[in-house]
Protein 1
Amino acid sequence: MNYVHGYSSRESTRLVDQATTLAELLHTDTVYQAGSSVLEAGCGVGAQTVFIAKNNPKAQFTSIDISPTSLEIAAAAITEENLANVTLQNADIFALPYPPESFDHVFICFVLEHLPDPLAALRSIKPVLKRGGTMTVIEGDHGSAYFHPQSTLASQTIQCMIDVQARLGGNSLIGRQLYPLLNNAGFKRITVSPRMVYVDSSKPGLVEGFTRNTFIAMVEGVREQALQLGMMNEAQWDAGITDLYASTGEDGVFCYTFFKATAIYE
C-alpha cells in the first residue's frame, strides 16, 4: 500500500484532528453488541480506533495495520485513553493470520482508497467474518469537495491530490463506489449513507478542525509531488492554496461528503 499522505508527525496530527472532528458524524451509529468480536482492518495510528472502542466498551476489537510505526502511535493512544478492549497486531489485509469465521464484525475506515485493488481486499477479508456478520466501510470522496469563494486554482490543487494518489495506485474518489465494491465482493443487504460536512464561519470548530486541519492540510501534503510532476507550477500552487484558505474566512463555505456503507455476509 502506498500511503499518499506519508507517515510524518504532521500527518499523525491531521488524522487525529480528522477523527475528533468527524466522530459524531461518522461513528455514533457504529454499534456492536456486548461480547462481539470486531476486526478493524487498517487502524493506522488509532485515530478512529479510540472512538469506536470507547463507543462499544463491551465489544472486543482486534485492530491491525501493516505499518509498525503507525501501530506504535496507536498503542500510545489506546494507553492514554485507558482502553482495555483493543488488541493491536501487525498484519496484512491480504494475508490475515486468522482462521475462517473469526469475527462477528469488520470495520474499515479510510483504507480502501489507498489500495490498488480494494475489491480484492474486501474478498480477502470476507472469509474471517462469520456468516451473518456485518461489514462497515467508511471512505471519503475528494471529488465531492466544493467551496466558496470559487477558485479554479484552488480546484486544481485538489485535483493534484486526486491525481497524485491515482499515480500511487489509490483512488480518492472511492466513496461513490462503495455499493458496487461491496456488491461485487459478495456482500448482501448493502446500505450506503452519505455524510456531508458543511462548514461556514458560524461553525468555528469545523472551520479549524475540518477545513483547515483536515482537508487543506491533506492537500498541502502533496505539494512536492504535484510540483515535481509538473501538475502546477509553484506560483499557481501557492495561489490555489491561498484561495482554498479563503473558504475558511468570514464569508467562506466548504462542503465535503463521506460515505458510510454497511453490509451483511450471508
Protein 2
Amino acid sequence: MEANVPARPKPRRSLPEFLNVPWHLGDLGLFVLGWIGIQVAAVIALAIVGQSVPVVEQFVTGAQRGDIGPSFTLDLLDAVVGFGLVWAFLRKYKVGWSMAGWRKVDMWRMFKYLALVLVGFIAVVSVLLAVLAVLLHGFNANQAQTNDFTQGASAHPSIALVALVLLPPVLEETIFRGFIFPALAKRAGVVWGAILSSAIFGIAHFQANISVYTFVLGLVLCFMYLRLKSIVPGIFLHMLNNYLAFIALSSTK
C-alpha cells in the first residue's frame, strides 16, 4: 500500500524578470521617510529663516496663501527629492534607470494599448464611482479636485500645465510603478503588488473620489507596465488623463 504523501503547495508564479529589482521593503520605508522628511525639514527651515529674511518670509506667506509661484517651487522640490532618492537607490545597487522602468518601447504597440486601456478605464471608473455614491452616505463622486494649481489653471496656464500635466506623470510613474510596485510584487506577488501600490497611489491624493479614481488608474498603469515592460506608456496615459482634467479646469471661469 502506498503511503499518503501530502500534496506540495503550488509554487507562486515566477516574478517577471524586469520586476526582479534589487531593492526591498526596507528600502521603500527609507524612501518614504526620506521623501516626506526632507520636504518637511525644508519647509521648517524656510519658516525659521523667514523670521529674519524678508524675501523668504514673503515666499512662506505666499505658499501658505496658495500663490502659484511659491507652490510651484515647492512642487519642484518634491520632484527633485523624489527623483534624487530613486537615483540614490539605483546607485546603491549599481543599476541604471532601466531597472526603474525607463526602457524603450514599441510605439505602435504602445498606442494600441493606450486606445484600448483608456476606454476600459473610463468605463470601469465611472461605474465604480456611481456604485460607491449609492452605497456610501456622503460620498460625492463629482467632487471637484482642488489645489493651488487647479485654482490657478485659467490664470496661469503655462505653470499649471507643467505642474498638473507634465511633471506629475513622470515623477509618479517613476516612483509608484517603477520603484514601489516591483518591490511590493517581489514580496507579495504581482497581483497584490499592483493592488497595494495602487492603494498607496490613491491614498496619496487625499480626496475620497479622487483616491478611488487614482486607485483604478494605478491598477491600469501597473497593467500597462506588465504588458509593455516600460513605464513610458504609462507616462503617456497619465499625461493624457491629466491633460483632459487640465482642459476642463482651464475652461472654468
